[in-house]
Write a structure and sequence with these properties.
39% of the residues lie in helices and 21% in strands. It has 339 residues and is an alpha/beta fold. The longest helix has 24 residues, at 252-275.
């Protein structure tokens, strides 16, 4: 059996398969890895295209769209390879992209997940929003990246080429140990999409594992393939799922105080959208908080599954402060300004 399964989740994405799958097949060493497409109940020509043009690519057909989290969970249950790469369908990989990830995992048994450097497909010198050179988080649960703060992405000039531990790896291209991924329950399918990989990394870190960025590997991500960056649905999922993460993973000593501050900051963000004429975004944040409070029995139950939580500030990849304060007040728009 090959060491790695590179699993691409697809839903009505035949255009992306035509554009990006060739690079994955070309640059993934066949002796090292299987290339797998897990189809989330597509109704377009995805299946016929794969069977005709890429018969060597393994195909897992799911009966409906289970979302990013549920789709990957059901697919990876069928994977027997030691390592699995969760790879978005809109990612272009580069020559020898996979080997550095495998080598890093082989050398460090505590490393449960890792990611390559992720640059923008349409603006190739710059980091991409989802992942950049590694995922970080602030003490209030707001995620950002080495190379991307808020919507400001930096040009990649090699400034973040050091291998280092991070808080979360991007779901656009994340390598995990297959058994460990499943033992921790996989991605939380209640999230449906967005931040489920951060939640999994947080759970895994509370369980003693490590996440690393491996910048000697580079991929290019289109981004916004399922939900555009200006989508109210995306805003809703990001705010709701961020709150779910806090409810599930924060240490009890810091939970209530951080939740109170988040209520205030999220409220400020909501009214900012309202003043900008983005009423649908205002409602998205309001609905996100309503969903969080109405589902308290869910995230309280999830908390009990992993009782040995660690104070957030004691994890690697955490900014001891507020990224909102740093960005909007102190005008720190580059990652290098923070640490």
């Amino acid at each position: 059996m090959k060491k790695v399964a590179v699993v691409i989740l697809n839903w009505n994405g035949v255009a992306h398969l035509k554009q990006f799958l060739p690079s994955v097949v070309e640059h993934t060493t066949s002796e090292l890895a299987d290339v797998v497409v897990a189809d989330n109940g597509s109704t377009d020509e995805s299946i016929s295209f794969l069977r005709k043009e890429y018969p060597s690519v393994q195909l897992i057909q799911l009966d409906q769209n289970y979302g990013f989290a549920g789709g990957y969970n059901k697919a990876i249950l069928q994977i027997k390879n030691e390592y699995t790469v969760l790879l978005n369908s809109d990612v272009e990989v580069t020559p020898n992209w996979l080997e550095p990830l495998v080598n890093a995992m082989e050398k460090n048994e505590k490393m449960a997940a890792c990611q390559p450097k992720v640059r923008a497909f349409r603006n190739r010198p710059y980091f991409e929003h989802a992942g950049a050179a590694g995922g970080f988080i602030d003490t209030l649960g707001y995620p950002f990246c080495r190379g991307r703060i808020m919507d400001n992405t930096e040009e990649d000039k090699g400034q973040y080429d050091s291998l280092m531990p991070i808080f979360w790896a991007t779901g656009a291209c994340m390598m995990v140990r297959t058994n460990q991924f499943l033992e921790l329950g996989g991605l939380d399918d209640r999230f449906f999409a967005h931040m489920e990989e951060i939640d999994w990394c947080w759970r895994m870190k509370n369980n003693g594992g490590e996440v690393w960025t491996i910048p000697s590997s580079t991929v290019f991500h289109l981004g916004g393939a399922t939900l555009g960056y200006e989508s109210p649905r995306k805003v809703y999922l990001n705010f709701r799922n961020s709150l779910f993460m806090l409810g599930k993973n924060l240490h009890r000593k810091e939970f209530l105080s951080k939740l109170f501050i988040r209520m205030i900051l999220d409220g400020v963000a909501a009214f900012k959208f309202l003043l900008e004429g983005k009423g649908s975004f205002f409602m998205a944040i309001l609905r996100a908080h309503m969903a969080f409070y109405s589902n308290c029995s869910y995230w309280m139950k999830e908390r009990k599954k992993l009782p040995n939580k660690i104070l957030l500030k004691n994890h690697s990849g955490v900014l001891n402060g507020s990224i909102v304060w740093h960005y909007f007040v102190k005008k720190h728009q580059k990652f290098s300004d923070l640490f």
